[in-house]
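Hi,

I'm pasting everything inline rather than attaching a file, because the server keeps stripping attachments. The sequence lines come first, and each chain or strand is labelled.
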Amino acid sequence: MKKKLSAVAAATAAALVLAGCTSGDTNESVDPSEDASAAAGANITLWLMGGDTPEALREYLRTEYADATGGTLTIEEQGWGDALSSLTTALPDSDNTPDVVEIGNTWSPTFTTVGAFSDISDMYQELGGDSLLQSFVEVGKVDGANYAMPYYFGSRYNFYRKDIYEAAGVAVPTTLGEFSEAAAALTTSSMSGFYIGGSDWRNGISWIFANGGELAEVQDGQWVSTLSSPNSVKGLEMLQDLYSTSSLAPATESDSTPWVNINDNESTGAPEAATIIAPSWASCCIGDPIELEDGGVGTQWNDDVFGVFVLPGVNGGAAPVFAGGSNIAISAASKNQEAARVLMRIIFSETYQTMLAENGLGPANLDYTAALGDNQFAAALIASAADSKLTPAAPGWAAVEGSGLLEEFFGKVAAGGDVATLAAEYDALINPLLNG
Amino acid sequence: MKTGLQRHTLNLVAITLALIWVFPVYWMLNSAMLPNRTLQSFTPTFVPFGGSFRNFRSAISDGSFASALGMSISITLIVVFFCLVFAFLGALAISRFRFKGRKSFLIAVLLIQMLPAEALFIAQYKMMTSLGLLNSIIGVSIIYIAAVVPFTVWMLRGFVAGIPAELEEAAMVDGLSRVQAFMRITFPLLAPGLVASGVYAFLQAWNEFTVALILLPEESSRTLPLWLRGFVQASATRETDWGEVMAASTLVAVPVIIFFLIVQGRMTAGLVSGAVKG
Amino acid sequence: MSSPVLPPQRTPEPAAVADWSPVARGSHVNQTPEQREAAVKAAAAARRSKRRARLLPHWLVIPAVAILAVGTGYPTLWQLWTSLHEYGLRQQFGQPAPFVWFANYTQLLSDSQFWAVLIRSLVFCFVAASITLLIGIAFAVLMSHVGKGPRLTLQIALLLAWSMPIVASMTVWTWLFDRRRGVVNYVLDMIPGVAMNRYNWLEDPLSFFAVAAIIVIWMSVPFVAFSIYAGLTQIPEEVMEASALDGASGSQRLRLIILPMIKPVIAIVMLLQVIWDLRVFAQIRLLQDAGSSATDYDLLGTYIFKLGTGAQNFAGASAASVMVLLITITISWWYVRKLLREDAS
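And the predicted assembly:
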């Protein structure tokens, strides 16, 4: 496998040199029609994570793929919670591997470094090149070669209760310090000014980033956990302070479903939270209760009561928040490399990218973000995503996430532990995992 | 044998305990009738007044229920049947005979259950792909039978041991062949044990999902627990509809209850007295 | 083992049974000459087939042995092999796995977290298994003493609890114990002077495991109760009636007749319960989803899961599994030996 990988890498390097020689005209190094003819009639499988890709988009992929190759595209859905074990077993197995696979963006470095994916550097320009979301491209790279590409991105911003802010005479904060003050001022015994679970590291890391800290850095060629760096500690202390003054959420809660707290509860007629931070799609589930056509009860967004704002940075602007989303790659073990490349082209086509955006998913190719719309949600999504950050591109990052150490660490910080001591302790626990 | 009052008290105790034990089940049914918003209310709704069957309708609306039900029924019946046959033969051997390797068999069967299963999935996957049994009913069934047989052997061994061999011998003296004696005397006496083990095997196969997740990656071959898990993990862009999850759970539980109602009579029917007198 | 009332029926002696000599034992029944003749014939036939009979038990265990060899044999051997190598995601993707002797084991044994999890698991297992067994036996005895209606009600209730899919039962239980909308807090809060509204059961590890134990016990009692009840129904009614006539009290009957007769079933159910509670996994993992997945809330099952699937240290997870196997053997060894000795007598 190792041999194969380096051989592929060498070939790619050669191809890149060639591409460079022909003054960037990348079309010469790839001929899409060649792939299509080689892929004729091939039946392939695509693994999608969760139900995020709507049915209409899946149907589009199936139809387009059939038109292009005459083969069948089978789409299998994998649950986020169980995907790691399925990927671990299926990806190396050439008889059963999915040909194209969506993976959580933060898992990309782990699977890419072990050689799970095919080098598709030669397609990079064709798939969108520099228009692609670069932070996602970076986590899919090893030694300068592209293995995993962005699929879609989401972002995180704040949802707040306009009615409560107005009643309390609190203005929408413009700096992170003001945010803490506003949250504290709004907090009552039954309502969090800012509801954040103590173990919610995916949101909590924004405070580290905002204060100039990092989760991990490369030092002397090795990844090193940097929770205890001065800037990280500063951010964590700010978060700890915010949590203790403004959040009634348990220290053990992670980021499951914060939005239920900002809606009026049926029994009290009041919300549990004046502000929450949530992924961009949470607007689906925030609003006044309404009766649905089929007899169920849903929510209806109400501009008089609810609003959104981007988490402000330390000195104003937007704080770097965690960039959620997925990458997509071709399995190295796939026997249908050409057919898989055909599917990749369909996914990165203007039509499909636009369809993603129209469904509220940040498109991999930033040229098509306009299709997200121009409402407040799209604006907040784009504004927060512009400064968003990803978790470190360390080979062992999936292991760090999988081990649950971050939930544990943030939970202990929220519970009031000494930040510097805890940070040093967890740096020591995370370090052995980081380099894979 | 008992005074009426004692009997009444015991009856009352039994029914009270039954109510306590069944409460979470009731809560599942109750929640299945209620909309999500009511489930998130801080005041529990104890009776689903104003509830509806909407959750049930939407749970089965996408049609994958039928295929998952088919998979689960096939796998479970295979597991129950083979598990009982294999275990019954094994239990018979160890409780009615002494033979070389008997002790090792007993110990091996016990030890196998002590190994935690959480780290076995890679090996199970590798084995099944090399046998070409990935996504097949047979592959998953083999793992399930192997997981349930050890318990069933020991369980049935206890039951066979509880039946005096003299009963069979007496019947043989009465002119029955050994097989006849066994089938007519011992086998009926084993019914409660077989039913208890069968129910156990049924439930294990019916509710298992971690092995199924690895060995049945194709959507078309998913079992009911995987189907159910799909509702919980439905989507990152859609709130989990807990009412729907509960409705789906109820649907998954119904076949088990039907199965039990079919076999429960065997568990209690006038068993031993007649045979002993024979 | 003797009883003032009636000698309890002993487990038949397998050696004698295998020889299967009905003539020697044919004195139970008043025999007619024809029967005696048949018995003699049967004995002759038995002698002829003696050789065949000697091989018969081996034939009987073959299917079980075969399925175990296929279904658990290979995975177990793989686990042993892996635990002696370096095996992570790289190795899973085809890179060589260097042999590291017992490095994975020494690393595990020097990890204080592993020891903490181990001790926690042992305590949890002991508490949950013993309570389960006590309640299970009580339910079984109760079932055999009540009328048909209440018995069926209890049986169906237990079965309903048992048949609930684990995903569903864990969801319901976490709702029942939810800090804000749970029925448990709601009901406790109604007691005057008790303020339980918003009490978070899953925050403190001790109450987290108390909740976990309640759920595990609730799920396991039906199996124990059914198995032991099935054992009880095997006791001939005559035995019970005779003992009642002889004036044995209820507790005497329980101690001297019932318990010895269902001992084989109780013994195995107890051992299995210990094994299962020691490796309980799904309940804890799903409860962690509602509470916290920090190490303080881990038992062996979730610890191994996090090490393997979570952190992709498959070799470490295999080593931990083998350790758990060894530990389970150690703590149950005296018990297994006792089982085997009784079996041999």
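Residues 62-277 of chain B form a domain with the MetI-like fold fold (CATH 1.10.3720.10).

If the labels don't parse on your end, tell me and I'll reformat.
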